[in-house]
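Thread title: Can someone regenerate the structure for this chain?

I was given the following input by a collaborator and told the matching structure tokens would be attached. They weren't. Posting the sequence so someone can regenerate them.
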Amino acid sequence: MSLLRNGSVRFLIAAGVLTIICLLILPACAGSEADYEAGSFPAVAMSPKESYRDASMADELSAPAPEGAAVNTAPPLEKERARIYSASLSLEVTRVETVRNSLGERALELGGRIEGISSEGIVVLVPAEYFFPYLDEAEALGVLIDRNVSALDVSEALAETETRLKIAREARQRLYDLLEESREGEERLAILREIRRLSEKIETMELQLATMKERIAFSRVSCQLVTKMGSRYDSRGLIPFRWMRNLDPFGVSLGSLEGAAIDPGGSFAVFRDPPSGNAFYAESADGAVLRMASTANEPEGDAAFWQEAMLNYLAPLYSRVEVLELPLNDGNEKTLKGVICSVSGEPGYRYEVVAVPEKGGLMIVEGVFPGTSGSDLIDSFHEALKERF
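Best answer:
Regenerated them for you:
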């Protein structure tokens, strides 16, 4: 009995130390002053009108370009900083199909891949070292209507996540060592519970780290193509509400958030979104994107008013727009109201927009899900909305 008691005491001491490590050291790596959450990163804002061809910038990209690649005249991707670049382009072209095929083929030649194709454009991922040259080549294929380039600096967050992951793995290995030495049933059960808890944290951090590294390595470029300034752009220009006019499944719609954000869970890595740096942005490993921002509730309307407005004004922009209703779980009859916009193409996208009047303002929450996304990601998004509102 004394041996068992001594063993239990040793286990409790060791487990207590490990628990303190997990509770104090792991969150501490996130840094309260920087206001990090697990997988949250600060943004580097880049104005849509800011030229990325500034001749005063330092050396060009050092990576050799594939045959025929444009000479890079853009600022280099800093070797000491890890950044995630993305861009949204709108081009007026002579033939949409021809230009769309050229953009897709060029992305493949550079070692990238096609993420989505529609009748109005294409979304590609290109290796980060060819991001700016690819933009140069894309813009040369038509007349530039609009361009939005953004960058997220994730250097500190990348290092912190790796450190936290390393600490968690070491702590789990120590628990495995204790498990091998333990012979008492209750003690082994307690160790197994702690191992399971740590394993769940490790899986979440591994997913967030993989998402970060994937987005650092490949930059997303969304190209919308039109044959003339007609239909789609005329319809967008007729929208009387600025925030609704700026809605874009593949670009930043709004850049500022006043109030608490949603918590999408461990399937999403949470970023700080440009241009202002305080809007909510999260992305999953398979390319699903969540955004949340706020704006003035002008004219002052309730959820039903804004839902009806979206149904009316967004219909010409998408292949299909339908009602989204999310009943809350608080026992009352309040329902979150929004729309589901279908973006045609392969694989196609599901674009959800929810407008929630709150404290004199208007919360706008967006979810963009590739056709290949599982329903679990959409369900996580909906549950996060219900918990937040």
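The CA atoms of residues 232 and 317 lie 6 Å apart.
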